[in-house]
Amino acid sequence: MNDIDDIVAQLKQKRDELRVQMHLATRELQDKWHELEEQAEDFVAQARVDETRGGISDALRKLGDELKDGYDRLLQAMKNIQD
User: Fold this and answer.
1) Cα-to-chain-centroid distance, residue 44
2) How many Å is the maximal CA-CA distance in the chain?
């Protein structure tokens, strides 16, 4: 598996975890979720284009890391709500 596949797989896992719990979220968290979902879809599409060109750019890799961090923050916020 290459860099882009790893990043996409990690994003998918985080998205799936959150999708199951999103009905319990506050409106603010739901809004952030929708924002991250749009960004993630754009990221995956752009990453696939970059991959066909021979690699993923540093900027795109950074965006992937920021998206993962955003999903991690949402997961933590959801855990805080449930506690």
Assistant:
1) 9
2) 46
